[in-house]
Design goal:
A hairpin with a 6-residue loop joins strand 15 and strand 16. The protein contains 2 helices and 16 strands. With about 220 residues, it is mainly β. A 6-stranded mixed β-sheet has the order 1-5-7-12-9-10, with helices on one face. A 6-stranded mixed β-sheet has the order 4-6-13-8-11-14, with no helix packed on it. Strands 2-3 form a two-stranded antiparallel ribbon. It starts with a strand and ends with a strand. It has a single domain, classed as Jelly Rolls, CATH 2.60.120.
């Protein structure tokens, strides 16, 4: 079940917050409403937190927690482009001994487009969405360690060069430093995709001539 999140309001005033131990003193905390907390479960493509339509000028943070222990392997967040847009993200986390990554996932194709896994702090990247109405998901995953994070989202208009390429079908493009999707990462993200009827399986076959083990993609029998 997808969980819808409200559109940001200018400011959220929290009155009567955090009463001080000092005699007779009160604190009123003003927090920006563009800070959200992830809602579990959001570990699969079908349960990703749904943030609705993104438009140029949107800027917000998603605070969450993840671990490499297997108990909370993924945090998925779904968005819909209201028009052609570019989405910049930064994944902030305080512990330099942890390594959290972000992957771009296409829920319509049920496949991972790219992963941003550089080891940089913060992890940064971008998504070019060349058509309004396209859905996409950003998936936070722990490569190493456990801890809290804040995923910062900043939306700007897509560049004119992409807007004018009318011959191209609307698509998602990753921008920034991404990694090649090796067999290990593909296997990990297959759990997030939760494809109930996969069209392919990986078989390990021995090359009779060399004795080497090869990986081949073989369609499942109907």
């Amino acid at each position: 079940m997808k969980i819808p999140f409200p559109r940001p309001l200018p400011l959220l005033l929290l009155a009567a917050a955090a009463a001080s131990c000092s005699r007779g003193s009160r604190h009123t905390t003003v927090l920006p409403s563009n800070v959200y907390r992830e809602a579990e479960p959001n570990d699969t493509v079908l349960s990703a937190n749904d943030f609705g339509v993104l438009l140029p000028g949107d800027h917000f943070f998603i605070d969450g927690w993840t671990t490499d222990s297997g108990t909370d392997p993924f945090d998925g967040f779904e968005f819909v482009a209201g028009e052609p847009i570019h989405v910049d993200f930064q994944l902030h986390h305080a512990d330099p001994t942890t390594d959290f990554d972000v992957c771009l996932f296409d829920p319509l194709l049920n496949q991972t487009i790219a992963c941003f896994a550089t080891g940089n702090l913060p992890e940064t990247g971008g998504v070019d969405v060349t058509g309004g109405g396209l859905e996409f998901q950003l998936v936070v995953e722990s490569f190493l360690g456990s801890g809290a994070y804040s995923l910062e989202i900043d939306v700007v208009p897509l560049g004119v060069a992409y807007r004018n390429r009318e011959e191209d079908a609307p698509s998602l493009r990753a921008s920034g430093e991404t990694e090649l999707l090796g067999a290990g990462r593909v296997s990990d993200l297959a759990e997030y995709a939760m494809d109930p009827g996969p069209s392919k399986v990986i078989l390990h076959e021995s090359d009779a001539a060399t004795g080497a083990v090869q990986e081949t993609l073989t369609p499942l029998a109907d």
